[in-house]
Amino acid sequence: MSLDVEIKDMSLSIGGTRILTDVNLRVPQGSFVTLLGPSGSGKSTTLNVLAGFLTPDKGQVLFGGQDVKDLPPGARQLGIVFQNYAIFPHMTVGENVRFPLVAQRIGTDHHKRVADMLELVKLGGFEKRRASTLSGGQLQRVALARALAAQPQVLLLDEPLSALDKQLREAMQSELKAIQREIGVTTISVTHDQAEALSMSDLVVVMNGGRVEQAGTAEEMYCRPGTEFLARFLGEVNLLPVAADGSCHPLDVRATDATGRLLVIRPEDFRIEKIDGPGFKATITDVQFQGGTLRLEVSVPQFPAPLVVRSPYAGYGSIPQAGENVRLSHDFSFLHFVDPAD
Known about the structure:
The protein is of the alpha+beta class. Helix content is 24%, strand content 32%. Strands 6-7-8-3-9-10 form a six-stranded mixed sheet, with helices on both faces. The protein is globular and about 75 Å long.
């Protein structure tokens, strides 16, 4: 069984410094929610409040409608995967997974539960292996199995994949999400990896300056950011100012209802055309080959900053060169604007 989680009007100060201010957040039962933000934004502090390691100055922390703000961590029915995994190296894998069952005095015959959890994380038969002999990816799986062994109602993940190399991290993203779907536990994760947050989450919550900047699905957050900060923070972006007459150089568009605002153009929204094709003229100033995609910077006449363009790689020999003139087109069926930051 899992619970919905809600934070209402929560504030927290540490040593006289305000860390969190009027944080409001709702996590639906059984969902996977990621807290994302720059360093110092308050995401890890929020996770520590949910875990019971910190007590807020005001507000409520509700698990299934019950305020748990004053409950110790052990009374909250939580599973936690720490950034460094916190695996006991002197114990076997089975003893590590069994630890919360013994500590919380849950049942007496733990063998089947331990075996089931290790099968879930694809470590069946590892019960007698010493934790000190495992790889980073295997340690991460043991930490997850241990966190789930006591059947928590809420699972908290603190940068769970940050210690893994890129390929293993991407593989574990899919596995972790599949396990979460299978058991249906409400999961709240903290990460600094934007790709991880966008690919795994039912809901992404971006924090900034101790507040929730915006919450929504990954697609909503990326395509419809509510602020200039979010547009700049989440991925790369081109922000084009709308003039008083509604023009938006270098695009051939009129947005008279958005004067003074910024048009949000993601790099992949542009299409590279031949020099005699549609769109506006640009000159390539930098080319970065990134495997399946190309990242280009282009200069545009009478536009002060370079524009960033991301284009699919079309095959061997197709990479354009710096100094090459092209034209850029854009699909005007969807335009999104944000207000400039103060």
